[in-house]
């Protein structure tokens, strides 16, 4: 079953700023802490993060699923996280981790109950100082996409 999305609609004057940064998801039922296993997560909080700020982007909600080894439930969760560079979870199975990485979403395991705000602050510091390898890869892909968008905006005559 596809995710239900609750997204913020940015002010047109700040839309470009709101769209910048790496998209990072957190498996959370209470919107403040990481408290779910990836495969059975019922909700994800998604933020846009860069070295200077983090902004809430959207909440994704799923029907409850058992931790039963049924990999069919992973497809909708992975698809919903398209465009995210990472997902913070309390646990993730090896098959799910492999599928996430193939989709360009790097799973980050943290202690159950880890608060989202300090995780965002730590990631911002890392992005400012020395981004982790997964973030460097995502930032490089973002720059390539921006370059192609700029080329497309130019007038080209054949």
Describe, in plain words, how this protein is organized in 3D.
The protein is an alpha/beta fold and 158 residues long. Helices cover 37% and strands 25% of the residues. The protein has five helices and eight strands; from the N terminus they run βαββββαβαββαα. The protein has helices spanning 15-19, 72-80, 94-102, 116-129, 133-153; strands at residues 4-7, 22-27, 33-34, 43-49, 54-61, 84-89, 106-109, 114-115. The strands form two sheets. Strands 1-5-4-2-6-7 form a six-stranded mixed beta sheet. Strand 6 (84-89), helix 3 and strand 7 form a beta-alpha-beta unit. It is globular. The mean pLDDT is 85.
Distance between the termini: 45 Å
Give the helix proportion (percent range): 25-40%
Topology order in helix (H) and strand (E) letters? EHEEEEHEHEEHH
Number of strands: 8
Shape: globular
Unreliable stretches: none
- Structural class call reads alpha/beta
Mean pLDDT: 85
The largest β sheet comes out as: 6 strands, mixed
**Multimeric state:** single chain
Strand order of the largest sheet: 1-5-4-2-6-7
Radius of gyration, whole Å:
16 Å
Keywords for this structure?
two-stranded antiparallel sheet, alpha/beta, 6-stranded mixed β-sheet, 158 residues, 5 helices
In short:
The protein is of the alpha/beta class and about 160 residues long. It has 5 helices and 8 strands; from the N terminus they run βαββββαβαββαα.
């Amino acid at each position: 079953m596809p995710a239900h999305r609750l997204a913020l609609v940015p002010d047109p004057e700040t839309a470009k700023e709101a769209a910048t940064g790496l998209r990072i998801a957190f498996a959370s039922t209470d919107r403040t802490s990481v408290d779910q296993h990836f495969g059975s997560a019922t909700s994800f909080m998604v933020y846009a993060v860069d070295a200077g700020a983090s902004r809430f982007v959207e909440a994704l909600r799923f029907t409850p699923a058992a931790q039963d080894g049924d990999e069919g439930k992973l497809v909708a969760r992975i698809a919903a996280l398209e465009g995210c560079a990472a997902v913070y979870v309390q646990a993730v199975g090896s098959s799910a981790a492999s599928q996430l990485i193939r989709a360009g979403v790097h799973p980050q395991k943290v202690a159950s109950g880890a608060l989202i705000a300090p995780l965002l602050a730590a990631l911002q510091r890392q992005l400012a100082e020395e981004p982790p390898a997964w973030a460097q890869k995502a930032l490089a892909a973002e720059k390539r996409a921006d370059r192609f968008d700029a080329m497309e905006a130019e007038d080209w005559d054949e």
